[in-house]
Fold this protein.
Amino acid sequence: MVKNMDLICLDIEASGLGASSYPIEVAWKSTDEDCDNFLIDPGSVAGWLFWDDFAEEMHGICRVELSESGISAAEACDRLNIALQGRKVVSDAWEFDSFWLKRLFEAVDRPMQFRLIGLSEVLSPEELIQYRFACKAQLRRHRAMADVDHILQAIRSVQHSVD
């Protein structure tokens, strides 16, 4: 198990939940407060056209903001690889986040140089149950960095309650 001092958590907001969706915002943060957060311009990847209006309502990120403030998919991959190279990175939604990371890195033909892991590799079965209860009590804004902060807070609370 990875303990608190070693944690890096990542969250992704996307254009939707369908098979044609793609990442539009990525945030990561470590327990020692290293972090990064950026928007991704879907215009930097041919074929990234899918947009779900309901997803936009959830995260509040519009296409205009992405085209004006987003970085290219290639720059996003480079930033992630430079910062997270060789590390294990925790996701509370591994199935979704791994899909979107794969789409991101494949879009620009780059290898992902870190490993995304799920909560089951960080928390015991008892801690996972407590984590789910802690998350239900949180009000999430569905922005990547706010979600990362909530994930870290919930993990810390369940690990401290078991210690």
Observations:
- Helices lie at 53-59, 63-69, 73-84, 94-107, 125-137, 144-162.
- The radius of gyration is 16 Å.
- The first strand starts at residue 8 and ends at 14.
